[in-house]
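Figure 6 in text form: structure in, sequence out.
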């Protein structure tokens, strides 16, 4: 069973459908609930967003994987985020009096809203699916911004397809499980989290290990540790699998110089 962040009709739901290996899907209300369900053995796998190309890291996912559970990333999936302006089937776009959606899509479609619909009121919804459901129940004067899946689910008409400001908008999702992936390919990625002693040069020394071992670091992200002001946890992605000797020994050297270290998984790149 594969858990995902609901409700149905959202981009998380679309990612779950794309990644399901014939599994039953189970909807959860929050990212925390998805991750805890996997950790507690309620479901075998979960898929959660971890990064958006516009908004950046999904902090809830990072924090939980580092500190709250003992799970591993076993795969990743990148979904192109195509925002769409939708109206009730048979309605006229000229009759729109209100446009509703989750705050993110409204922000990501600001150019269209500020030009073509500058005199139309916008209103936030709890989710894009909730906004689409409202349009389906409306008299035709309400429009929403949501995924194509929402149009299919609620029988809406797409009035403006792919109307986001940035056409390269994408969200990276990760699959989490209780056991690490044993699959090794020629195109893998490894993710870790660690903290360092707060002294000059500590991060430089840690990252220098990758250069010395000819290991390519593809991403670094920092998050504050909530219990200690001024102390940060670093999340790093590198090319390759921990089964590779040079990566294994580089990470082992790094681990010995950290105050906290966690291997988050080696898995095939999206």
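Output sequence:
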């Amino acid at each position: 069973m594969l858990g995902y962040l609901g409700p149905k009709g959202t981009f998380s739901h679309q990612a779950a459908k794309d990644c399901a290996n014939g599994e039953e899907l189970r909807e959860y209300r929050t990212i925390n609930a998805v991750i805890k369900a996997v950790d507690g053995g309620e479901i075998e796998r979960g898929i959660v967003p971890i990064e958006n190309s516009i908004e950046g890291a999904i902090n809830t996912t990072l924090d939980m994987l580092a500190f709250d559970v003992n799970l591993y990333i076993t795969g990743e999936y990148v979904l192109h985020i195509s925002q769409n302006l939708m109206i009730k089937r048979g309605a006229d776009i000229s009759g729109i009096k209100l446009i509703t959606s989750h705050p993110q899509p409204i922000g990501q479609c600001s150019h269209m809203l500020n030009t073509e619909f500058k005199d139309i009121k916008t209103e936030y919804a709890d989710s894009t699916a909730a906004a689409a459901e409202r349009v389906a129940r409306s008299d035709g004067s309400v429009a929403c911004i949501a995924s194509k899946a929402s149009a299919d689910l609620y029988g809406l008409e797409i009035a403006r397809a792919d109307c986001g400001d940035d056409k390269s908008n994408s969200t990276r999702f990760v699959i989490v499980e209780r056991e690490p992936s044993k699959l090794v390919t020629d195109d893998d990625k490894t993710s870790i989290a660690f903290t360092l002693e707060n002294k000059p040069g500590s991060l430089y020394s840690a990252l220098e290990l990758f250069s010395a071992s000819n290991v390519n670091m593809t991403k670094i992200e920092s998050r504050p540790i909530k219990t200690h002001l001024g102390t940060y946890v670093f999340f790093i992605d590198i090319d390759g699998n921990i089964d590779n000797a040079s990566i294994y020994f580089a990470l082992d050297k790094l681990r010995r110089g950290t105050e906290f270290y966690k291997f988050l998984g080696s898995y095939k790149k999206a």
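Caption detail: The radius of gyration is 21 Å.
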